[in-house]
């Protein structure tokens, strides 16, 4: 099951003819994927191959060919899927009730599960475009958030369709800001914008790309210290680990036991041999 994406105009033009042998089977789908995991395993490599193929085709990056407003291969993975599926002549069930773009007018009575905030959307004079925030640190900078959208009470309530559209747009950004707030609380951000010393060290480590390395070294040190504590706890006054002493005693006992068995078997063998000789002599005398 997929969401319909009408802007994949490459399914209807030369792009599809270049990248699939079955352009007539190209479906304009994407955004949300609902696929059985076994089917995905079989299809994944073809999807990747077609994505790389489309992304490398810079000669056809133009918006009038791809529908990509950035003209930079921005939606290559979507075409990669559609062209790969066309190669296998896969058909799709599309569902308009799963995903919506903020800025689109929602269908009445539908509770959308996914907001795909891919492009700029507006509410009055306010607007939001995630591309404008690529170089801004919203994660590790305490209390960073996106510009607040207008208050819903200030909207024009005379046009119901536009009102519902704007409600969804406002909900999208408010949800993002709430998620950032919760994240910064977990970072132990203070009201003045600073963070606790421990958290600050972790943030700096992430920025330097050494967080995992530092974490691993600390964990290894803890593990080594813990192992040393266990060993020292299991030693007696001689400095020899008790587990080692147990093994030595066990081996000694086993050796003694084995020696006794061998002596017993040898003695039993001699005894049986003597009895046979005695029996043989008795028979000869009787004869």
Automatic annotation (TrEMBL):
Residue ranges crossing the lipid bilayer per the database entry: 244-266
Domain Hydroxyproline O-arabinosyltransferase-like, first and last residues per copy: 26-151
Bilayer topology term: Single-pass membrane protein
Record keywords: Glycosyltransferase, Membrane, Transferase, Transmembrane, Transmembrane helix
Major subcellular location class: membrane
Single GO molecular function: glycosyltransferase activity
Any Gene Ontology CC annotation: membrane
Localization per record: Membrane
UniProt name for this protein: Hydroxyproline O-arabinosyltransferase-like domain-containing protein
